[in-house]
Amino acid sequence: MPKDFYIKKVTELMADNERLKAKVTQLEKSSEVTRSYNESELKAWYSKIDEVYLSVMKTQEYVITNRSKIKSMNFREKLKKENIAYNTLLERNSFKSEEVSAFRNNNVQFNTKTLSRRIDNNSYENH
Q1: Which tens digit of pLDDT belongs to each residue from 84-95?
Q2: Whole-number pLDDT of residue 125
Q3: pLDDT band, very low/low/confident/very high, at 100 (cuts 50, 70, 90)
Q4: How far apart are the first and last CA of the chain?
Q5: How far apart are CA 59 and CA 47, in angstroms?
Q6: How many angstroms separate the Cα of 119 from the Cα of each of 77, 107, 108, 113, 114?
Q7: pLDDT class for 27, splitting at 50, 70, 90?
Q8: 70 in the Ramachandran plot: left (φ > 0), alpha (ψ -120 to 50) or beta?
Q9: Whole-prediction pTM value?
Q10: What is the pLDDT of residues 51-79, one digit of tens each?
Q11: What angle do CA 87, 91, 93 make, to 5 degrees?
Q12: In the predicted model, what is the mean pLDDT of residues 22-45?
């Protein structure tokens, strides 16, 4: 590359650098002017921020409460279904238990009658 090309590029970059430095100083001066703030404006912003924060907190509390209610309702529904299933099973078992008890009672009564007859027959035979 020719030497003139590099000289031209360096000159352009130096001009851009000077232009940017001027822009930076201009922005610094304008920022110093805007750095001073009005206390009443600041209080207004604080109150707006507080209002938004309170509304977010209320909304969040509402959402958490509703989620909790939904979970409780789902849990109650689950417990209700399990309770119905348990009661059905218990009812079936109680019917089976009653059948078994009735069968045992009949057998015991039958065995008792048979046994008492045998005892009676044996006692007559022994006498």
Answers
A1: 888 888 787 777
A2: 54
A3: low
A4: 146
A5: 18
A6: 61, 17, 16, 10, 9
A7: confident
A8: alpha
A9: 0.41
A10: 999 999 999 999 999 999 999 999 999 99
A11: 115
A12: 78
Our CA angle for 23, 24, 27, nearest 5°, is 85
The rounded Cα 111 to chain-centroid distance in angstroms is: 63
Label each residue of the chain as H, E or C: CCHHHHHHHHHHHHHHHHHHHHHHHHHHHHHHHHHCCCHHHHHHHHHHHHHHHHHHHHHHHHHHHHHHHHHHHHHHHHHHHHHHHHHHHHHHHHHHHHHHHHHHHHHHHHHHHHHHHHHHHHHHHHC
- pLDDT class of 3 with cuts at 50, 70, 90: confident
CA-to-CA distance for 78 and 85, rounded, in angstroms? 11
Provide the greatest CA pair distance for the chain: 151
Pull the structure tokens for residue 77.
Answer: 């529904």
